[in-house]
Amino acid sequence: QVQLQESGPGLVNPSQTLSLTCTVSGGSITTSFSAWSWIRQPPGKGLEWMGVIRYDGSTYYSPSLKSRTSISRDTSKNQFSLQLTSVTPADAAVYYCQQGATGSRGQGTQVIVSA
User: Fold this and answer.
1) Does the CA dihedral 38-83-61-110 come out positive or negative?
2) Is 55 exposed, middle or buried (0-12, 13-18, 19+ CB in 10 A)?
3) Cα angle value 81/84/86 (rounded, 5°)
4) Number of H helices and number of E strands within the chain?
5) What integer is the mean pLDDT of 79-103?
6) Which residues does residue 37 pair with via DSSP β-bridges, in sequence order?
7) pLDDT in tens, 49-64
8) What's the rounded Cα separation, in Å, for the pair 70 and 66?
9) Which has the closest alpha carbon to 88: 39, 25, 20, 15?
10) Are 60 and 10 in contact (CB under 8 A)?
11) How does the average pLDDT of the chain come out, rounded?
């Protein structure tokens, strides 16, 4: 069974860049036709899809976040990462990595944006 684990700082200063990493075990991020997503849930709100990196390295982003979001990967470590630039308090949320659209999801990591 595929397992995912998010890691990264829980506190980010406004205007800085948020960087999170997802470590995948039990499966490879390069498995054909696999896809790996980042989603988030702000306090009191629903889940928001942020973007995805596919098995071939191609990426797709939410139009509302595209200008600030970058997803990359390190195949040697079986990890994929999220960078969100110019964060504001509105970016505070629990951030999750997930396999595909409905697959296994990490336990999530809470991010606070505050000086």
Assistant:
1) positive
2) middle
3) 155
4) 0, 10
5) 96
6) 52, 98
7) 999 999 999 999 999 9
8) 8
9) 15
10) no
11) 97
Q: To which residue do tokens 């990462």 refer?
A: 81
CA dist., res. 40 & res. 93, Å (int): 6
Q: Please choose, from the candidates 35, 44, 2, 36, the residue with its C-alpha nearest in 3D space to the C-alpha of residue 20.
A: 36
Alpha helices by DSSP H, listed for 6-111, are: none
The average pLDDT across 89-104 equals 94
Reported for 28-31, long-range contacts at CB under 8 A and 24+ positions apart, including other chains, are: 28/78, 29/53, 29/55, 29/73, 29/75, 29/78, 29/79, 29/80, 30/55, 30/75, 31/55
Alpha carbon distance 101, 103 (integer Å):
6
AA letter at 8: G
**Beta strand residue intervals within the chain, DSSP E:** 3-7, 11-12, 18-25, 35-41, 48-54, 59-61, 69-74, 79-84, 93-99, 109-113
| C-beta of residue 80 within 8 angstroms of C-beta of residue 98 | no
H-run or E-run covering 9: none
